[in-house]
Design goal:
Shape: globular
Order of helices and strands: HEEEHEEHEHHHEHEEE
Strand order of the largest sheet: 6-7-8-3-9-10
Helix content: 25-40%
Oligomer: single chain
């Protein structure tokens, strides 16, 4: 799962980034994501195991895109490549007009921090921090220096996800649906134009899953954000603008 590749602590690791690796966004065009001929091959000894085979994918700005398929189809690998976490064996990926497959590791880390919000199946909240503190930490890492401004913005984000009354609760005192709403609020810290989610409703019951779906759609459309969701959950189909199916490493 992508949560094992991008930890919440990655935010801290790149807090002291310098201005020597700026990433300038090309705002022209309608595509937030454009992947071309993406291939991924793993090796066991000398034996190649192709995971992705010539994947092309376009996602327009402001759209909600689902990526579905059976277990082992390569969905999480593709999401990791589109997020700049994995480098494909072949092919190219452009996000917001920038070809991320040509960026250095430092540039990629900076780009992710500035432009992508992540939502995980396992929430990935810091257990010793309250709901509002989890979001404040993300804002601090993204460069918001004023503690007062961070607290105000974090509370505003919790209000957007209808969880302001739980601001001072620790994750252990929240339900699964409430934890995921905190995680969604945290993904919005810094107002990133891209949100990438790995099975965001898999740990939730029907009621909470539906609430999260509606919340993601509302936040995407009102904020003109592009949302890419890897999921097995067919409940999300009605909320999506487009659905792509990946099977045996091929996009159908």
């Amino acid at each position: 799962m992508i949560a094992s590749q991008v930890k919440s602590t990655e935010l801290i690791r790149h807090q002291d980034r310098t201005a020597s690796t700026p990433v300038f966004l090309d705002k022209a065009g309608d595509d937030a994501v454009m992947a071309r001929d993406v291939e991924m091959v793993y090796y066991s000894g000398a034996e190649p195991y192709p995971v992705l085979r010539g994947v092309d994918l376009d996602i327009q700005r402001g759209d909600i895109q689902l990526l579905m398929g059976p277990s082992g189809s390569g969905k999480t690998t593709l999401l990791s490549i589109l997020a700049g976490i994995l480098t494909p064996t072949a092919g190219s990926v452009r996000l917001l007009g920038q070809e991320i497959t040509r960026m250095s590791r430092d540039q990629l880390a900076h780009f992710r921090l500035e432009n992508i919000g992540f939502i995980f199946q396992g929430f990935n909240l810091f257990p010793a921090l309250t709901a509002v503190e989890n979001i404040e930490l993300a804002l601090k890492v993204k460069g918001m220096r004023s503690k007062t401004a961070r607290k105000r913005e974090a509370r505003d984000l919790l209000e957007q996800v209808k969880l302001l009354d739980k601001a001072d609760q620790l994750p252990r005192d929240l339900s699964g649906g409430q934890k995921q709403r905190v995680a969604i609020a945290r993904s919005l810290a810094g107002d990133p134009p891209l949100i990438m989610a790995d099975e965001p409703t898999a740990s939730l019951d029907s009621h909470n899953g539906h609430a999260v779906i509606e919340l993601l759609r509302q936040l995407a459309k009102e904020g003109d954000r592009t949302v890419l969701i890897v999921t097995h959950d067919t409940r999300l189909i009605d909320a999506a603008d487009h659905v792509a199916y990946l099977e045996d490493g091929v996009l159908r």
